[in-house]
Amino acid sequence: MALLLAARPSVQVRLWSAFEENHRILRETRENQRFLPGVMLPDRVELTTQEAAATDGADLWITAIPTIHLRSTIRRFAAFATPQTAVLSLTKGIEAETFLRPSEILSEILGTDRLAVLSGPSHAEEVARGMPTSVAVSAQEAGLAEWIQSLLSSERFRIYTNSDRIGVELAGALKNVIGIAAGISDGLGYGDNAKSALLTRGLTEMTRFSTHYGAQSETFHGLAGMGDLITTCFSRHGRNRWLGEQLGRGLSLDAILASTRLAVEGVNTCRSVHDRCRNDGLEMPITSEVYRVLFEGKTPRQAVTDLMHRLPRAEQI
Q1: Structurally, what CATH architecture does the domain formed by 2-164 represent?
Q2: Where in or outside the cell is it found (predicted)?
Q3: Is 228 annotated as belonging to a binding site?
Q4: How many other β-carbons are positioned within 10 Å of the β-carbon of residue 174?
């Protein structure tokens, strides 16, 4: 996002870092060597570790904080927010303890309702290198979504507005669980047939779950739903698909997580969604099997077998 905005001469961009060492390296090299090697940050992007300096006079705050760290991190900014503060969330997850979506956490802590969410098939590795990307932005305030659309759109980054903020956020979170399932299929050496079935039935699960909590089913046939799901399940960049692939190859969850410093949102989302389904009586067979592999020691191959041996039924979309 910093690169997109920095391309506009009239826009002043500040980039906040949570850690001094990361800030020092970025200041000296103008390159995020760990996550975006080879992508240079323009000199006109200001760098800071100070919350007050980052937010001073800002028209828009953009957050891309992993869900597990969102609450603790955003508290550092609470003193600088007002009811008029506009915030755009890029986070794709659900808070495990509360089942709150990122926008709900932001609203609770910052005390603003001027919240928008942006989601869709948008790996940072491709966006930062100027590869064509299309996403959806949603806000309760239609004017806010339209303003963000005009602010961030470019010849390589197309934004559609969507009125369904609940659906856009839940789609971005739930696709990570199906991404783990797709990775398991890859790790087991299964082919296109298996993955296509996972995507199709996974999208049905995502829609069923989300409409129960107020989302619109149409959202899941758009960029935030089907679009992001396809990218997550097939892309070499996808962390959730990668984690699932390692599980399929026989590695344990603890070993996989210990080998990476990256946030894999689908793990906690799976736990949260599974618990909510159990409490509310919702059927999510793929999500349930992913949960058993992640947290109950079930083997990936047995999980696939049990999915295939479910009672025959008519296809429900």
Answers
A1: 3-Layer(aba) Sandwich (3.40)
A2: Cytoplasm
A3: yes
A4: 31
| pTM, two decimal places | 0.94
Around Cβ 114, how many Cβ atoms within 10 Å?
21
Strands 115-119 and 133-139, how do they pair? antiparallel
For the record, the structure tokens of 24 come out as 């020092």
Read off the pLDDT of residues 81-131 as tens digits, 9 standing for 90 and up.
999 999 999 999 999 889 999 999 999 999 999 999 999 999 988 998 999
Looking at residue 258, its pLDDT comes to: 95
Q: How far is CA 173 from CA 17, 164, 197, 311, in A?
A: 24, 15, 20, 28
The answer to whether domain 2-164 and domain 166-308 are alike in fold is: no
Residue 187 marked in a binding site: no
User: Could you report the per-residue pLDDT of 34-45, keeping only the tens digit for each?
Assistant: 778 888 888 899
Residue range 166-308 forms a domain whose CATH class is: mainly alpha
298 is in an annotated binding site: no
Instruction: Spell out a b/e string for 70-105, using b for 16 or more CB atoms within 10 Å of the CB, else e.
Output: bbebbeebeebbeeebbbbbbbbbbbbeeebbbbbb
pLDDT tens figures, 246-293: 999 999 999 999 999 888 999 999 999 999 999 999 999 999 999 999
Q: Is 240 annotated as a binding residue?
A: yes
Region of 60 please: left (phi>0), alpha (psi -120 to 50) or beta: beta
Amino acid in the structure at residue 149: Q
State how beta strands 133-139 and 61-63 pair. Answer: unpaired
- Residue 175 marked as a ligand binder: yes
* Helices assigned H by DSSP within 86-236: 102-110, 124-127, 142-152, 165-187, 192-212, 228-234
122 marked as binding residue? yes
Residue ranges of the domains in the chain? Answer: 2-164, 166-308
Catalytic machinery residues: 175
